[in-house]
Design a protein that fits this description.
By secondary structure, the chain is of the alpha+beta class. It has three domains: about 5-150, no CATH class; about 155-240 and about 505-540, 2-Layer Sandwich (Uridine Diphospho-n-acetylenolpyruvylglucosamine Reductase, domain 2), CATH 3.30.43.20; about 250-505 and about 570-630, Cytochrome P450 (Cytochrome p450), CATH 1.10.630. It is about 50% helix and about 10% strand. The chain has helices at about 25-30, 45-55, 115-150, 165-175, 190, 195-205, 220-230, 240-250, 260-270, 275-300, 310-325, 330-350, 365-395, 405-415, 425-455, 460-475, 480-485, 490-500, 535, 540-545, 580-600, and strands at about 5, 15, 35, 75-80, 205-210, 215-220, 235, 305-310, 510, 515-520, 520-525, 530, 600-605, 610-615, 615-620, 625-630. The strands form five sheets. Strands 5-6-12-9-7 form a five-stranded mixed beta sheet, with helices on both faces. A four-stranded antiparallel beta sheet has the order 1-2-3-4, covered by helices on one side. A hairpin with a 2-residue loop joins β10 (about 515-520) and β11 (about 520-525). α15 packs across α18 (about 490-500). It is globular. Residues about 1-45 and about 55-115 have low confidence and may be disordered. Bound molecules: protoporphyrin IX containing FE.
Length: about 625
């Protein structure tokens, strides 16, 4: 921030503020704000103050609304063409009066102190302002925030400016990652999020992870989680994903907010209606059947038994399924997009977890960034070509109509709107396609992998499921239908239990867009709210004493009756932003498991290492080798 001072007509000093110190966004808006301050008083220039001034520059307001009481200082006027009289603290904290911020007439431009004194005074004022802002930001505000939370019974980590708690977290993660689990244990928290567990046992289920700006709160209570995720008013928004994740996902459903999100969801929703998904079951089963035929051939050649690393196989399978169901006949281009997205994900992962990450480096033309930009262009160009092709074909076939019965076709159809006005632009459609690939394939692939792990280590459940599949879907050669899949109650229960114990998404986050009352806890605007699904899914108070065990029977009366809390299973999230693809994923997982169970018995291979790891999604660190035995060699 820079300041200029000039003498005003009524002997007060004018402070010209050229930018807000904390936010470049605000500094763009708040250039050239002038305000007068009373002699001997100080006006620390917070980003909030600057933006409030900016917003009111040309209005003749007499007051700004005060928050958190009245600050000691008086802002007597804001200089615009017609300076309004302004009396306001415009500050959300109560600082003590500061002598070093006082402006005396001798410090003012044109005041009699001479050029050198003036420059020195100006520099001192700038330094003092800066120092004050830094003190407030780094010391006072975190202290006040922590106290405000403590008064409400929420404790947490002590604030440590600059270094935070990274070292402690790294040490805990390093210690945890060295441990592999017994196959009968499903408690991967010490490997994946040991710090959450340690801090929860120290501070309780809701605790402050940081009281800096913005503060962050871990929310481990179901009633609060329910309130946050069910909100429809925009009070709890998604957090800023950063450029790398944005490039991966695009501004699709997962990341959009408000009106944009509602518009996108209107267009995408019809594609995921159950009757439409049922039509995709054939494509899902056909992709799975191809993989299973290859396994059969390998097993038959090896005397009826073969070891397969199913994690990699399911990654390929789910990519094929999404390519076919999203793009129908253009699935080859879909696969190209998938491969580029996969590489982008590796880059994203490396960037996020890079310990020597320098802020802003994601914009520099480094080798990895150039590769990222190239891949982004490829994804965009390929998707654009597919969409153009589809639009042209639809135009030609105007008489027969329709854009196709795959996800893209259904989306384009919904996009056309009743009055022919397009609801989403081409770029937005492209971003939705990217979202399908990212959100839709890896999650389902890991769900299948973990289900195979649990069935491979629980042969009695495997046998019960096999019997159910043979009863409802028929023998190995019978085609798999969506109606038959809907009768697979035990398979559904096992999949829910898999999602509870090994849900691919272990944590989500929201940001309070305004001051909020969260089930009695006052949460200031900007607070990050971290919701650790994996920990909530192991809460014995909600799930019972056997929360740590594999017990699919807990879902025998359906997912909402598994606990006293109807929304306790959070794997697909809940509320308006819950997963749009959950029925798609469940259908795909059921079809695949049904086909496998009809052809093989299986067990987890001896060389498997039980080490769940969270690389954006939860997966076995070294894959899952499974010994498959042909049922009818
Ligand atoms: C086992 C499989 C899956 C799991 C565990 C899963 C999990 C989730 C979760 C937890 C969210 C909410 C994220 C948040 O709000 O922070 C979400 C949202 C979403 N998922 Fe899934 N998902 C799965 C499969 C799919 C599939 C197959 C698709 C599409 C083909 C898909 C598309 C989406 C989209 C578009 C959203 C954003 C919805 C919105 O905000 O309106 N997901 N998913």
């Amino acid at each position: 921030m820079t300041t200029n001072m000039s003498k005003s007509s009524d002997s007060r000093e004018t402070l010209l503020l050229r930018s807000a110190p904390e936010s470049s966004k605000i500094s763009q808006k708040a250039s050239e704000i002038s305000c007068e301050v009373a002699v001997g008083r100080a006006v620390p220039v917070t980003a909030k103050l600057a933006s409030q001034l900016s917003a009111r520059r040309n209005q003749s307001l007499s007051t700004l609304p005060a928050r958190d009481g009245v600050a000691e200082w008086l802002l007597v006027s804001v200089g615009t063409e017609q300076p309004p009289r302004l009396v306001s603290p415009a500050l959300s904290f109560r600082p003590a009066p500061l002598a070093f911020m006082s402006l005396t007439p001798g410090m003012a431009m044109g005041g009699g102190g001479g050029g050198v004194g003036l420059v020195a005074a100006a520099l001192a004022a700038v330094a003092a302002t800066w120092l004050w802002a830094a003190l407030v930001r780094l010391v006072w505000r975190p202290y006040a925030t922590a106290r405000a939370f403590a008064r409400q019974g929420v404790r947490g980590l002590p604030h440590r400016p600059f270094r935070g708690h990274d070292k402690e977290v790294k040490a805990m993660l390093a210690a945890g990652s060295g441990e592999t689990l017994d196959r009968g244990s499903h408690d991967f928290i010490p490997r994946v999020m040991p710090h959450y567990r340690a801090w929860m046992s120290r501070y309780g289920k809701v605790f402050l992870l940081g009281s800096g700006s913005p503060p962050s709160l871990c929310v481990g209570k179901f009633d609060m989680v329910n309130r946050i995720l069910s909100d429809r008013t925009g009070l709890y928004a998604k957090v800023n994903p950063g450029p790398v994740i944005l490039a991966l996902l695009g501004m699709g459903l997962v990341l959009t907010e408000g009106e944009d999100w509602a518009r996108h969801r209107r267009v995408v929703h019809p594609a995921f209606a159950m009757d439409k998904l049922k039509m995709m079951t054939g494509a899902m089963a056909a992709c799975a059947a191809e993989v299973i035929r290859a396994w059969e051939a390998r097993a038959a050649a090896a005397g009826g038994e073969v070891t397969v690393e199913v994690g990699e196989q399911f990654a390929e399978l789910t990519a094929d399924v999404i390519s076919h169901t999203a793009f129908g006949s253009s699935y080859r281009q879909g696969k190209e997009v998938f491969l580029a997205q996969r590489e982008l994900q590796v880059i994203a992962f490396t960037s996020i977890y890079n310990p020597s990450r320098v802020p802003g480096m994601q914009y520099a033309p480094t080798k990895s960034n150039m590769r990222r930009w190239k891949l982004e262009r490829k994804v965009r160009d390929t998707l654009m070509a597919v969409i153009d092709e589809r639009l042209a074909a639809a135009k030609e076939a105007a008489a027969t109509g329709g854009y196709g019965s795959d996800l893209l076709g259904l989306m384009l159809e919904a996009n056309a709107g009743e009055d022919g006005k397009r609801l989403m632009s081409m770029d937005e459609i492209i971003d939705e396609c990217k979202t399908f690939f990212f959100a839709g394939h890896e999650t389902t692939s890991h769900l299948l992998t973990w289900a195979m792990f649990l069935l491979g280590t629980h042969p009695e459940w495997q046998q019960r499921l096999r019997e159910e599949v043979l009863r409802e879907c028929g023998g190995a050669e019978a085609p798999i239908s969506a109606d038959a899949l809907s009768q697979l109650k035990l398979v559904t229960m096992v999949l829910y239990e898999t999602l509870r114990l090994y849900g691919p998404v272990t944590l989500t986050a929201r940001r309070a867009t305004a001051d909020a009352d969260l089930c009695g806890v006052k949460v200031p605007k900007g607070t990050s709210l971290l919701i650790p699904f994996a920990i909530l899914h192991r809460d014995e108070e909600v799930w019972g004493a056997d929360a740590g065990e594999f017990n699919p029977l807990r879902f025998r009366d359906g997912v909402r009756r598994a606990t006293a809390h109807p929304n306790a299973l959070l794997s697909f999230s809940i509320g308006p932003r819950s997963c749009i693809g959950q029925d798609f994923a469940m259908l795909e997982a059921k079809a695949t498991l049904a086909l496998i169970l009809r052809r093989f018995t299986f067990e987890v291979a001896p060389e498997y290492v039980h080490a769940p790891a969270d690389f954006l999604t939860l997966q076995p660190l070294q894959g899952l080798p499974v010994v498959l035995k042909l049922l009818d060699p």
